[in-house]
Design goal:
By secondary structure, this protein is of the alpha/beta class. It has two domains: about 5-130, Rossmann fold, CATH 3.40.50; about 135-195 and about 245-320, Serine Threonine Protein Phosphatase 5, Tetratricopeptide repeat (Alpha Horseshoe). The protein is about 45% helix and about 5% strand. It has a five-stranded parallel sheet, with helices on both faces. A two-stranded antiparallel sheet has the order 6-7. The chain is globular, with a radius of gyration of 21 Å.
């Protein structure tokens, strides 16, 4: 007998390839996505972020259903206070025997899931590692062990070697690991800034905007200017536009302060990577292809890949390596 499980998918885990969804059996298990008050209010989120995640979650629901999954969905208008409440209600409605979830990106929630949920819900709770990241907790801990200083640059080099990004015959492409010194040009109107394409808003996103405007009236964020992609297809189109129209100048001006544009030549894809609409390794590989095809300089490609493969993975590794004590550190003695 196949006992059905509840597969909980958090708002920043919207990839069908993440570990918990890979374990889901279409027609047997129930996948739950939940917009709950606590996760939307524990800090004063910008309303663009709330709209982006809620709309992306609602679109992801349809993506999962198209793959044959049964999805339970809790909307913000239902007034559910916490994830535990949404999970408990779904367990009872569908007579499910276990909860499976990919680990959250914050210690506060992971600690609660691991130490409280099983007793509270009365069923086993299995937490799977988030393998959408390119360095596991074990990978990072193995690299950090015995080091007096945890330098991002050296971690980044190991990641380049591991994933063979910008490598030629075992050596860094061009003979150098880091081209940051080439990416510090001043602005002085040296280039025409390309106009970015707008993302069309469907009825789902328009409804979310109306709900968020009503429910979070005092949060920052002018929703008259919402322009983020909320589907995998649209996120990929935004990244493709960056490759074709902005990557060539990204390197030179990535640190420039420009009055004419808030984003200049930047990719504007971090939110899509972080919530699962884009894959970090695929993004890096596509940028390398652009360089090898002559569409951008090596310094531009290296500068972009360093942000994703280096800084993104390193900061995440540092966070989990030192938590929970990390949250109480005050190295600069701030008051």
């Amino acid at each position: 007998m196949n006992e059905a499980k509840l597969i909980l998918v958090l708002g920043d885990q919207l990839s069908p390839d993440q570990a918990a969804i890979r374990s889901a059996r279409p027609g047997v298990d129930i996948i739950l996505l939940a917009e709950v008050d606590e996760e939307a209010t524990y800090v004063r989120h910008n309303r663009h972020k709330i709209v982006f995640l809620f709309s992306a979650m609602r679109h992801f629901r349809h993506e999962l259903e198209a793959l044959g999954h049964t999805v339970a969905y809790v909307g913000i208008d239902e007034g559910v206070d916490r994830l535990e409440t949404a999970v408990e209600r779904t367990l009872q409605t569908h007579a499910l025997t276990e909860v499976v979830v990919c680990e959250p990106g914050e210690y506060r929630l992971l600690d609660r899931i691991q130490t409280q949920w099983s007793e509270l819900l009365g069923v086993p709770v299995t937490v799977l590692e988030d393998d959408r990241f390119l360095a596991s907790h074990t990978d990072f801990a193995s690299w950090a062990k015995g080091k007096k200083q945890l330098r991002m640059e050296f971690f980044y080099r190991k990641m380049r070697e591991r994933y063979q990004l910008l490598m030629d015959d075992g050596q860094p492409a061009g003979g150098k690991w880091n081209y940051d010194a080439d990416n510090r040009a001043g602005w002085r109107n040296q280039r025409a800034i390309p106009e970015r394409p707008n993302v069309s808003m469907d009825a789902i996103t328009q409804h979310v905007i109306a709900q968020v405007a009503e429910r979070f009236p005092n949060n920052p964020g002018d929703l008259e200017q919402f322009r983020l992609a909320v589907t995998r297809t649209d996120a990929q189109q935004q990244f493709d536009w960056f490759i074709s129209h902005a990557l060539a100048d990204f390197g030179n001006f990535q640190d420039a302060l420009v009055e004419e544009s808030p984003w200049v030549f930047h990719g504007l894809v971090s939110m899509y990577i972080n919530c699962g609409l884009l894959d970090p390794l695929a993004v890096c590989q596509r940028v390398e292809i652009a360089w090898r095809e002559g569409a951008c300089s090596l310094s531009a490609a290296e500068g972009f890949i360093r942000q994703v493969l280096g800084w993104r993975e390193y900061i995440r590794g540092i966070y989990w390596y030192f938590m929970p004590d990390y949250k109480t550190r005050n190295t600069l003695n701030a008051s």
